[in-house]
Amino acid sequence: MQARRFEALDSWRGLCACMVALFHFNVFSHIQSARIVQNAYLFVDFFFVLSGFVIAANYQARLAQGFGPGRFLFLRLGRIYPLHLVTMALFIPIDIAKDGVSLQLLRAVVTNTLLLHGTGINSGLWLNFPSWSISAEFVAHIVFALVTPWLGPRMLPWIVIAIVGSAILIFISPLRMDSTYDYGLARCLYGFALGVLCFGVRARFLWLDKPLGRYADTLAEGAAVVLLCLCLAMLDGHSAAAVATPVLFASLVLLFAREKGFFSRALKVRPLLLVGALSYSIYMVHAFVRAVARAIAMVLEKTTGLSFFMELPPLANGEVPRLLSIGGSLWLGNVLQILMLLATICLAVLTFRYIEEPGRLWSRGARPFARHREGKAI
User: Fold this and answer.
1) In this predicted structure, what is the pLDDT of residue 313?
2) pTM of the predicted model over 0.85
């Protein structure tokens, strides 16, 4: 079966990866001070919802019909693991330079290698810190591989998972939608389950894919984009209301999976499709670009005597933001932040070509879990 591609959603994923990168760069700039960028960590939940939708679209029927769960999980590992290992390795000397060799570093290496660092067993974000979501998402894939062959396309288990995940975020997690290493797994399963439910709704109600008309479809897509921007500009990620954000992303996925309006067509232009193809690499390497930029700033501080950092008041999680700053200029900060994003995309091109894509292709060709019956692989 040929994997179904939702090109408009691919471009959305790339744009979301860029927004997460801008959020993590922590630069004193107009860009960083924009509310939508301050809340851009919520775009990680778009990844979770989209992952559930795309995985269900391409594997739900096959797993229910006998496609091996082991083979499915091996394909997912081939997709994520090579780049995860490389980016983790890049951070080991960085962490040694900061804190030396410690038991915490050894624990971080072990848990990251085993993809357990997003399951709540660690007490912080270590090494390539955004990769906690990759760990949580792989656990979601394991759940999908176990549930689907047994229950097929039934929606009830995913409704239960979504309800339990959202309840944990509302009533237990202290940071709610800002949960990462602690309750990030609940956050991931909640979004992933909503994505699977989106596919189930789309498969059951075929009229959802029928065009409304060129202007009506464009109006619906435009209204969804405006609503998303307004919500992300107003939300407090630590509030109970923010737990509804993945529902908003699920609606966006359902709408743009139709690819009927002007905005969907605009998202399918070649540059945006390229950014969409690079989205995983962008997400995985942007923290390294951030680390290099901050290391350069610290060297310049020592050699020039000038200050290249600005401290802000503590956040709700107790962290004190230390922003990169060029002479306290917001405009120069904008330039720096854009240059960091461009550097991230350039590095992502290399990691996609030489690490991510070869790993994906190798996993598809290796077929270690293939079984043979009557002389033919199935």
Assistant:
1) 80
2) yes
